[in-house]
Amino acid sequence: MYNPSTIDGLRGLAFYQRCMHIAANPSFYRSCGIPETFCGTYDLCMLHMWILRQRTVLEGPEGHRSLDALFACFFDNLLPAMARTFDIPSILLPRYM
After folding, report:
1. Using CA atoms, how far apart are residues 61 and 87, in angstroms rounded to an integer?
2. N or C: which end of the chain has fewer CB within 10 A?
3. Confidence (pLDDT) at 3
4. Local structure of residue 6 (DSSP, 8 states)
């Protein structure tokens, strides 16, 4: 699970922050025709996390631990933040994913 006091946790948090920074770039939405909705933002974040996963698994066990922390951080932080941004009650989040 995600623990920000470990090296893997910090690395997962850094991956998460980088994915969110990239996904927040408005040019992705404009140039790719992605709607700026909950689903569009979620899909773009998942795409970036998948790309990162493809590269990170080559690092062996350390990469896998960092990916575990990335996904734990993602679900702990992003989904509630996006729900607030798009005014979606937390109980309805699974419907939008």
Report:
1. 38
2. N
3. 67
4. S
**Residues of the chain where predicted confidence (pLDDT) is lower than 50:** none
Distance CA 94, CA 97 (A): 5
3-state SS assignment for residue 88: coil
Residue 53: burial class (beta carbons within 10 Å; 0-12, 13-18, 19+)? middle
Question: For residue 19, what are its two tokens?
Answer: 């994915």
pTM value is: 0.68
Structure tokens at 2: 């995600």
CB 5: neighbour CB atoms within 10 A? 6
Helix, strand, or coil (residue 33) = coil
Categorise residue 64: left if φ over 0, alpha if ψ from -120 to 50, beta otherwise: alpha
The owner of tokens 């569009």 is 40
